[in-house]
Amino acid sequence: MTKFVCRRCNYKFEAEKPKKECPYCGEKDIVKELSAEDIVEIS
Length: 43
Description:
By secondary structure, the protein is of the alpha+beta class. It is about 15% helix and about 30% strand. It has one helix spanning about 35-40, and strands at about 1-5, 10-15, 30. A three-stranded antiparallel beta sheet has the order 2-1-3, with no helix packed on it. The model has no long low-confidence stretch (mean pLDDT about 90).
């Protein structure tokens, strides 16, 4: 499962496949939530 977050309402959820819209507010601005490991790699 991959963790996603909505940029509009900050709703966090898990899904096997990328979602097109937020299940909470319906916004279509969904991004993969970065893990601590992802953040370290970016730095």
